[in-house]
Design goal:
It is built from 5 helices and 6 strands; from the N terminus they run βαβββααβαβα. It has a 6-stranded parallel beta sheet with strand order 3-2-1-4-5-6, sandwiched between helices. It has a single domain (about 5-105, about 110-130), classed as 3-Layer(aba) Sandwich (Rossmann fold). The protein is of the alpha/beta class. The mean pLDDT is about 90.
Length: about 130
């Protein structure tokens, strides 16, 4: 049986990633187009798909106007990939900031889960256990 794969953006907690590896999952870095932290997240497809994506709100909100670069990830594009490929996206954000993040992300689809950092491992394990 193939091990499930968790993709993560730069800055994801190493203790979280180590716990997932010890649980038997593979972890692979992904890039938002600016940080060059692994494979660009927009290139995830059926052939290289992952089972879970973990990141932060600031990693998927591209700058406005002239500051935006062609390679920048736009949240809506990422949400589309996650919906089409059925990849849950966990965005770590303190609970107190979640209402503002929902507004900034224009009410993300259900495939996107905003989770307090203290709860990320528990939520990730639950999502990965679902088959």
């Amino acid at each position: 049986m193939t091990r499930k794969r968790v993709a993560y953006f730069d800055g994801t907690d190493s203790k979280l990633l180590t716990a997932l590896v010890c649980d038997g999952y593979d972890t692979v870095p992904v890039s938002n187009g600016r940080d060059n932290h692994g494979h660009h997240v927009r290139l995830i497809n059926d052939k290289n798909r992952v089972d879970l994506l973990i990141g932060y709100v600031h990693k998927i909100i591209a700058p406005d106007g002239a500051a935006r670069e062609k390679n920048d990830v736009v949240a809506k594009d990422l949400f589309h990939i996650c919906r089409i490929l059925e990849i849950p996206l966990l965005l770590e954000i303190p609970e107190a900031l979640q209402p503002r993040a929902i507004e900034l992300l224009d009410h993300p689809p259900d495939i996107v889960k905003l989770v307090d950092p203290a709860d990320t491992l528990e939520v990730a394990r639950a999502l990965l256990a679902d088959d």
